[in-house]
Amino acid sequence: MIKYCFTTAFKITNFTLLEDRALISLQGSDVWQLLQGIATNDIVKYQHSKEQSIYTAFLNTQGRIICDAILIKPLIMKAGEWIYNKDELWIDVEYHQKKIFKDNLKKYLIRKKVEINDLNDLHILGIYSELMKHEDSLGSSINQDQDGEIEDGDYKNQVFSDPRLQLLGLRIITDNYEQIEMDPTSLLIQNQDVYKAYRYSKGILEGSEITNQLPFSVNLDFYNGINLQKGCYVGQELAARSYHTGVIRKRCLPVAILSKDDNFDYLELKEQPSLQKENIYLGDQVVGQMLQSQYNFGVAYLKYLDIDINAQFKCKDHEIRFYPNKDLKKMIKDYKEIINSRQII
To answer: Counting beta carbons within 10 angstroms of the beta carbon of residue 67, is it exposed (0 to 12), middle (13 to 18) or buried (19 or more)?
Structure first.
């Protein structure tokens, strides 16, 4: 039995089985070198760090996103201790992009010692609320035998913070999510639509939602997905040039979709019609487009530098408001200071 304890600023913490995600194992002495040459983040630095997970994207030669993924160092039992399994990584990727990821990887596999395997028996779970932390008190094993003994070579149930944003909470990888002991007074099982709405409320797009987009338009720099000091990976030259010599005038930002009687300061999750691909107006001017929406939250592609971002926008018959968290506010402020220092805004 796995037991996790959660503390939260709210009474309820949400728990979702992420059925649209898949896991792939990469094993071999060339894993780190291979990924270093095609990932936007610094994989070698991650290899030698204490961090269990990292977020990254993979670009084409035009500098646009092929797919994104969360990389995880799996913990394994060796000589009575849980340690990171050397030369192995697990790849947490959108289920429908699993083949895309593997096909892209295989283009660079010539003379590389890397084995690729699907981990079809494992599940990915999300546990999330505005503030939370976890205690993994039992150190349980994925491959535990019937008498409860943990043996060398057993993989641990992986529990780690989402590397994109602290507000996205935790991810758990296990073979049997039903064995997780949950307190029904503090943990609420939610479907994927609720998780998607929560993710949108933080401005996070992923998987096929960002395919063929430019890295900075979907905020890879804000959400720890790209290392701007790293060189020599596929698409790096164009990505670096667009960041260091240009201005990112449009970004994907979280918005709330309001009805007439809604109180913007106290929003609760509620049904709203999908506004995907609809134009967003400030007065008579088109200032953006709704890329994705779920319930009363969405992610909009907005000209955030050229307008009052805190204004009241319109999308069809609905009022739209920018819905930032404090981390996003700071990241936008910091970026504006960078481009002001270049005197190119």
So the answer is: buried
29-76 tens-digit pLDDT: 999 999 999 999 999 999 999 999 999 999 999 999 999 999 999 999
Amino acid letter at 74?
Answer: P
Alpha carbon 250 to its chain's center: 20
Tokens of 131: 């503030």
Contact assessment for residue 173 and residue 123, using Cβ atoms and an 8 Å cutoff:
yes
pTM, whole model, 2 decimals? Answer: 0.92
- Assess contact for 97 and 24: CB atoms under 8 A: no
Which of the 8 DSSP states describes residue 156?
B
**CA-closest candidate to residue 292, choices 200, 226, 154:** 200
Residues 211-239: pLDDT tens digits?
999 999 999 999 999 999 998 999 999 99
| Angle formed at CA 207 by CA 242 and CA 197, multiple of 5 degrees | 105
* Gyration radius of the chain's alpha carbons: 21
Joined together, the tokens standing for residue 293 give: 């929406």
